[in-house]
Every structure is written in C-alpha cells, then in structure tokens.
Amino acid sequence: MKNLILRHVSFVAMSLLVSTTLTPIHGKHGHSQAPKTIIENPNNLPTRSLYLEPIATQTQKENIIPQTRSVKPWTLLVYIAANNNLHTFALQNMRQMVRVGSNSNINIVVQFDGIGDSKIKRYLIEGGQTKLLDSLEADTDTISGTPDSLYQFIKWGYQNFPAKKVAIDLWNHGSGIKDPSIWGKFLMSHRDDLFALNAEKNLLELNRRMEANNGESDDEATFNLETRTLFADLTLALMKKRGIAFNDANEVYIDNQQLRSVLDNVCRYVLVGKRIDVVLMDACHMGMVELASKMRPYANFMVGSSEVEPGSGYDYELLLTPFTTEDLTAKAFAVHAVRAYEKTYKTTHADYTQAAVELGTFAPIEHTFAALAKTMHEALSQVESKKMFELIRTVRFSSKYTTEFYDPDYIDAGHFLISLICKTRELLATHEGISLETRTAFERIIELSEEGYRALTTSIIAETHGANLPMSHGLGLFFPKRNTHSSYLKTTFDKATGWSLFLARFLNRLKYGRITDEEEQSPV
Q1: Residue 191 placed within a domain
Q2: What is the DSSP string of 472-512?
Q3: What total number of domains does the chain contain?
Q4: What is the pTM assigned to this prediction?
Q5: Phi, psi of 454 (to 5 degrees)
Q6: pLDDT of 523 above 60
Q7: Alpha carbon distance 23, 34 (integer Å)
Q8: Phi, psi of 25 (to 5 degrees)
Q9: Contact, 171 vs 80, CB < 8 A?
Q10: Are 422 and 245 in contact (CB under 8 A)?
Q11: What DSSP element (H or E) covers 134?
Q12: Helix (H, G, I), strand (E, B) or coil at 239
C-alpha cells in the first residue's frame, strides 16, 4: 500500500504551492509512472519521504534590501509555518522557488519558521539562492502561528519590496472554517494513513469513510446515522495516543477570527485601502464558501482546496515559471495556480481539488444562501414539514446526491445545490395532494438553488478535481450530520446568511427521530 502525508488541520490558512514526487507506481495496467524519490519507513511500509538536496543559502544576514526601491509588477509573500511535521516539505518548496527565483516581474519573499529553529528567518529567493535578509529571535512576538507574526511579516515584506500587485501565500495545515479541535489536530501526525494506492486505477486515493456502508441497501446506507465510518474509527483510535498543536514547539495557531483581523489590518495600514490581489492557501479544506465570504472584503482572488492536500502541496516551480517571461494579471495568476496544481496531481491522485474564486462577484452567493436557509428553516416548521425534512435528509445523507469530503462536516456546495433542484422537482412531480404552502416552499427552493448555482459558477473562475470527485465544483460548504461547531457561529458567512439556524433546526429534528405530520400538529 502506498501512503502519503497530507496537509490537514490547524492554522486557518497557511499556504503556498508545491510538487508531489512519487516512486514509480506499477498498477494493474502498468502504464503510468511518476518521478522517483527515496522511500524509507521504520516499519517497512512505503511512506513518502524526500531526498533533500542542499539549498544554496547565504547564512550571514545581508543588507541587500535596496535603498531606492524599484516597484516590480508583483511581490509574493510566503509565510511558511513549518515548526511541525511539514518541515521537510517546506524545504522542498523553497528548493522549487530557488529554481525560478525573483526576476523583473516578481519578488519572492519568504518567512521561514522551521522545526527546532531558534531563529525566525526572512529570505529573498533570488539568483539560485535563498538570501537571508533578517533573522529574528523566536519569542512570543515572532513565532509562527500568531496573528501578530503574520501581520508583521506582511508589513515588513511589502514595505521593503513594494509592488503593483501583491500575493500572500499562507503555507501550513488547515482545518477549513472550523477552528481547530482535537480530532483535527491528531491528523497532523497521522496523515500518512489516509492516502493509499488503488492498483486498478494506478492512482493514490483517500480511504473513503463511506466504505463502511457496503452491503447495505441504498435506504439503509442513506439513513443509517449509527454507521461507524472509517474517518470516525481512525479518529477515535488515534486520539487516544496524542494530539499535535499546529506549531509543535509552541502550541499556537491562528484561528479564523484572527486571520480576518490580520487581513483587515493589512488592507488598512499596509496597502492603505487597497485589496490583496491574490491569497493562496496551501492547506487542507480551505476552499470553502465560508472562507471566501471572510476573504471577500480584503482580497480580489482566493485559491484553495476543498479537500485534503498531499503534504507537498503546490509545485512552486510550476507556479512561478510564467513570471520569468511575463507580468500576469491577478486573475491570470489565480487561474494558473489551479492549472499548476492540476498538472502536479492529475496523473498520480484520484482525490484532489483546487479552485480560484473571484471574490468581487461573491456577494450574490451570500444573498442566495441567506434566502435558501430562511426558506428551508421555515418549511421545517410548516404543517407538512416531514416532506421537507425527508427531502433535505435524502440529499445530505446520500453519496449519490452529495459530495462529502474527508472531513465529513464539509460537502461540495455546487453538488448540493444541483441535487436540491433535481430531488425537489422529482418530489413535486410524484407527490399529489401537497398543500399550497408546501408546494410554494418547494418551488422557492428550486428557484433559489438555481440562482445559487449560477452565482457559484460565476465566482469560480477555475476549478479542477480528481476522478473520485466527479461532482466537485470547487468550494466546500459546512453541513454537519450531528452538531454545529461552536466556532461556526462567529463566521461572517453565518452572520450574513443565518445558515446555522437552518442547520440547528434540521439537526435537532434529525437527532430526535422522524416525526409524522399528524404528530407535528398535536399540541405540546
């Protein structure tokens, strides 16, 4: 079995871009082969590791920041929080950056906090070297995983390397819209259990939790809430051993609210009223409608994955090569980031996603989800609410109608909307005697779902996904099966849409079982 480390968990948006090199993969058909790497594992299990050739680095701090600063088209600020088990991938990514380097079109500036390092280092990637510009003592003000550290790096980087356009690359683990919890943290040290080689497809794929439903009928698989999924079993088994913080040495991370404050301050005081051109998130589960909603006031484009990412993330050489010959627009850079990611994983992985979102067109998505949440919430309290409840439950709990990501609380927003349209139309066509009130609610759901889908496909300007995720559209959506995470109530998306109010009513109904329409009309 072939395993691979993933970027899953914590710090709300540490990202950048990396390459995935694999050992030769000989599947049933034997027609695909990937680049070589070193394989070593204490238990003789084929886990991914890297052969790290030395990076040419100037170890003495240099005063190479120009006094007369030329304004280039781009500055890329890469915030690498590698004081954790992604350390080797950080080195790999920096080596990829070195192969391209800063040029007349772009400054590549990195802050690096590596595992066991006593210094926080800032580099300019240029001329085949990582040139050390600044070295900070690691303390509570400078260590990675704090909002002040992120803000101070962006401020320092932009002031010393001003540019017409700026991209911020948040590189690390990611837990999506939920702020870290113990079940999320444990994955930081056990991600290599998640990817395995499918010999028939000759692709690496995630061990899917719904496999536990094999052998059940469609109805049983859809509605069996007691099914112990692979995800749950793995979580329960590994949590007993230990949990890992996102900055392993200092046990700190940046939560979603802190990230929002950092971006707000960057736009106010560093860019002085301008927006960040592109925010790249090289981390798991960060491509979500909720995070796009959070980023909308502060950035023009957001790029991220709605599924888990392999530990190597983006291939920076692929990502940055176009800048050697041209000055990309912000939109072109965001689209290219998606295509570079696709090129990295298309022939080796069956479970991957990546999407670029134009945040300036995102507001209609919030408006539509607000109306949809209100309609479904109200319909769940009507006389014939059982029909609405069964409709939503059928869509949410069927893998046919909903694409569920490795974190089972996250689903694909586009697939969910399409299924609502189709299943609601089917219900109206096959059920007679529905009251006018209920029929009106169902017709409204179709209308809003269609509006939401059009808005979603307008905002998503580039998207890619693996063969195992054919209905993925690019952005995840929080829709748990049991409980609403407490941190969700703080999100800008929930405040704008009231999505958690709908979730609370649906999940409460789900928790206490099926209620007939007649029982609902009985006095309490």
Answers
A1: no
A2: --S-EEE--SS---GGGGGSHHHHHH-HHHHHHHHHHHHHT
A3: 2
A4: 0.81
A5: -65, -40
A6: no
A7: 6
A8: -105, 120
A9: yes
A10: no
A11: strand 129-137
A12: helix
